Amino acid sequence: MLIRTRDNGFEHPLSSEITPPAAYQNRRQWLLTAAAMGGMASWASRDAWAQAASVTPKPGKLAALPGKRSAVDGAMTMEALTSYDDVSSYNNFYEFGTDKSDPVAQAKTLKPRPWTVAVEGLVNKPGTFDLDALLKLSPMEERIYRLRCVEGWSMVIPWVGYSLSELIKQVQPQGSAKYVEFVTLADPKQMPGLRSNVLGWPYVEGLRLDEAMHPLTLLAFGMYGEVLPNQNGAPLRLVVPWKYGFKSGKSLVKIRFTDKEPRTAWNVAAPQEYGFYSNVNPEVSHPRWSQATERRIGEGGGLFAKRRQTQMFNGYAPQVGQLYAGMDLRKLY
Ligand SMILES: Nc1nc2c(c(=O)[nH]1)N[C@H]1C(S)=C(S)[C@@H](COP(=O)(O)O)O[C@H]1N2
Ligand SMILES: [Mo]
Description:
The longest helix is centred in the first third of the chain and has 16 residues, at 21-36. Helices cover 18% and strands 20% of the residues. The chain is globular and about 55 Å long. It has helices at residues 21-36, 46-52, 84-87, 102-106, 131-136, 164-171, 209-213, 265-269, 317-320, and strands spanning 68-69, 116-121, 127-130, 141-148, 153-163, 179-184, 204-208, 218-223, 226-227, 237-239, 252-258, 293-296, 307-309. The protein has a single domain, classed as Oxidoreductase, molybdopterin-binding domain (Sulfite Oxidase, Chain A, domain 2, Alpha-Beta Complex). By secondary structure, the protein is an alpha+beta fold. The chain is built from nine helices and 13 strands. Strands 1, 4, 5, 8, 9, 10, 12 and 13 form an eight-stranded mixed sheet that branches. A five-stranded mixed sheet has the order 3-2-11-6-7. A hairpin with a 5-residue loop joins strand 2 and strand 3. The model is unreliable at 1-12, 18-22 and 32-59 (pLDDT under 50). It binds ligand MTE and molybdenum atom. Molybdenum atom is lined by residues 92, 149-151, 245-246.
């Protein structure tokens, strides 16, 4: 039985219940069709699904990382997923080059293990967390988020991780902590893109503490039921679904709690173009282009590419809108 849920209409199949990412999309489509035809789909029909989806399953490339279905409000969009191939080959990760195709080609040199994340600044319990400790810190959840790049493209991705708030609660921010700075790896031996000065390295990002504590702010370790491929930010990254993609720092090595708004890599590189908040906002244009519409990766390109209306806060306004009550989002972009 497909169970109706308040937010999403239907229950989602989980990545972990299917093996190959390539088959994931087809399974979802099949489920949605079955649901539309009278809600007959059930997990007993899993084999039927496998036959219905006439795909050649690709073997999983990376270690499995399953997650339970997230119960966080807004965490499971029912939009069609972007294919694993697109998600893992069309990337922004300037440490590996500025072309979309650079990270998949270059990020093989990134070593996602061993890995530690330092937590410092205005917290009662600072410390250095080993990746294995972080993987165990809280149960893994699957969440299906839209990710929208400031350049005007978007994807829908099944991430695996848990709310960043789980880690924040453990380190106990002090009353004076108002912001969180995220510092990502900058190792020239692993990252050829550091030879370019297109950005100041390391890549840094920041959130207000209440944004960082919001349950939708995800500390992601995987996608499509597997650990993250290097080009998507292995071994752990942020995913902040209501903000432009650049706020979601990849390959995090340090999290610092401060009382001042942190400087961020894009704001330093081009202050007139990128502000601190960078909430997805179709009404505030980037100085060089409109943010009103977006192209969903995988829906076809070229001149006749269909464009979608971009939604305020990337569609997460019901969950996060109140964080910005009373703020002028044209000035504080
Ligand atoms: N360390 C680091 N993190 C980063 C970036 C980067 O260049 N370096 N690019 C950002 C941008 S602009 C986007 S759109 C997303 C892209 O994530 P994806 O490649 O998983 O889609 O990562 C963000 N995180
Ligand atoms: Mo981006």
